[in-house]
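Objective 1.3, modelling of assemblies. Example input:
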Amino acid sequence: MGLYFLCLALFCVGLYGVLRKRNLVKIIIGLAIIEYAMNLFFVLLGYRFHGRAPIDAQDQAILNMVDPLPQALVLTSIVIGLGVTALLISIAIRIYEKYGTFDITKIRKLRG
Amino acid sequence: MIKDPRTGMTLIVKTITRLTVGLILLFGIYIILHGHISPGGGFAGGVIVALSFVHMMLAFGKDIAASKISTNLASNLESIGALMFLAVALLGFLGGTFFLNVLAKGTPFTLFSSGTIIFSNISIGIKVGVGLFAIFLALVILEKSKQEDNS
Amino acid sequence: MELYILLIFMIVAAVAAIEVKDLLSSVIAVGAVGFALCLAFLILKAPDLAITQLVVEILCLIILIRATIKRDLPLAIEGRWVFNTISTLVFMAVFLLFAYFTLKELPPFGEPIMAVVKKYLAEGVARTGAVNIVTAVILDFRAYDTLGEATILFTSVIGIMAVLRRPGRKQIK
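Predicted structure (tokens):
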């Protein structure tokens, strides 16, 4: 229970970065921290005490494995997070070329 | 052109890269092919293959890496990877439903033991690896052309 | 026990990443959060995820450093700062309060219910022939999700190439 709470506290740190920062790269870093927190939360849901990794070996019983279904879902989520971060960074590079700044309040003032 | 001190990084980095970039590529292919026996699979192996190309580009400069795999070849390879994955999925129609695992399953713990899973792993590995290298290539080509416009 | 230490380290590194004024230092702090997450996956008995998270974190660091290496910017704080901070903190307090009531309904940590997975574990090796159960789940039992993920990666590569293209710059020499 304490572990789930610390995970949601990490989510709140990332959320603070998205809501309150004015630098565009800091907002993207906040989004990356939110993704890490949610991946960790999913894998924490499936852990089992005294379990083994979900790979069958030649001389062990199959009964005590940790839950492999959240691990399968998080595996694709990690690579999707990389794709989203790369796309956001490329948009930020274009914004810097056009306006000369990463500051979001100044981007609103210069129109066209 | 490889020993040119004007492009890329210093001589120590270039020597180490020349020794290790083939090993990184081989390790990535090993993780893709043994995805159903040991941890890894298509995604992790694909990213390792992309990292080997990025390593070569960072150490030697843009021109040599672009001569190995250009932008057009990267786009084509990525599309071929995605189409191969769809072809493996449609192969399941031979057995009855979409995505059914139709090939023969041998004894466990050998390389060709799991039907269509190994072909899915290979196509996902090609797609992810070449796609991520294409992202990096697009970022680097933008920098170079911006500097040419400014100078 | 080790998980508590790792999570507190991740929270401290995340706070450092958000608050530090230099962009390069905050990118390195995000790298520290990612590597600690890879260690947490190893402790939670998930080797596939640890390998994938490690190499994805390295690639993400390379792309982030590439973007911020010469584009730093000093900032000044102006106007309506107290109201914004207090409303954000009130929102987070309400969120954590409702999260506490929800987290009491989950099964306790370390004893999952595993209602769906019993069938996958019982006949996974016999039906698919793959020894790695996570690979069997993502490429045989739930292969539609992998198709969706391949589409998302494809779309993001096309999007990056479309955003970073320079229109009409072919110079005729």
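Chain C touches chain B at residues 47-48, 50-52, 55-56, 58-59, 62-63, 66-67, 125, 127-132, 134-136, 138-140, 143-144, 146-147, 150, 153-154, 156-157, 160-161, 164, 166, 169 (CB under 8 Å).
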